[in-house]
Amino acid sequence: MGELTFQSNHLHFRSEDPEAAAKFYCDNFGAAVSSVTPLSTTKSFQLELNGQGLMTISGRAEGEDPIPGTTDPRYGLDHFGFEVSDMDAAVAKLKANNVHFNCEPWTMPSGSKVAFIVAPDNVSVELIQRQQD
Questions:
Q1: Percent of the chain with pLDDT strictly greater than 70
Q2: According to the model, what pLDDT value does residue 6 have?
C-alpha cells in the first residue's frame, strides 16, 4: 500500500440561486462552469479556475431547509480567498460589476494588500495581493 495523500477537490456552496451564484464567480473571477448536473430538485454547477476544480454550487435539495449565510466572523469556514496580481485592477473590475466590499483594500504590516467582498448568499471572499519582493 502506497503513501496516503490528499489533494483539494472542491468547496460546496448552497445557494438560493445557484445559476446566478455560478455566474457571479465566472463574471468576476474568470471561473468557468465545467459541468451542470441534476441534484434532487435542483442543479449542481461545477466550477473550475485556471483548469483546477474550484467549487460546486447547488440550490436547496428536496427535504433540506438551509439557514442563511453571514459575513460575520465565525468559527468553521469564515471565508475563502483569491490571490490577485493587481489589487487596484481587481477592485476597479469588481466595483464596475457592482460587487459590494465589506472591507476596502488596506495594506497589512507584511506589505500584502487585502480586501473582502460579499459574494452571493453572504459568502465572504478575501482578495490578497502578496507583497512583491
A1: 99
A2: 77
Domains of the chain: 1-64 (3.10.180.10), 67-133 (3.10.180.10)
pTM: 0.90
DSSP string, the chain: ----------EEEE-SSHHHHHHHHHHHH--EEEEEEEETTEEEEEEEETTEEEEEEE-PPTT--PPPP--S--SS---EEEE-S-HHHHHHHHHHTTPEEEEEEEE-TTS-EEEEEEEGGGEEEEEEEPPP-
From residue 70, how far is each of 26, 37, 126 by CA, in Å?
A: 22, 27, 14
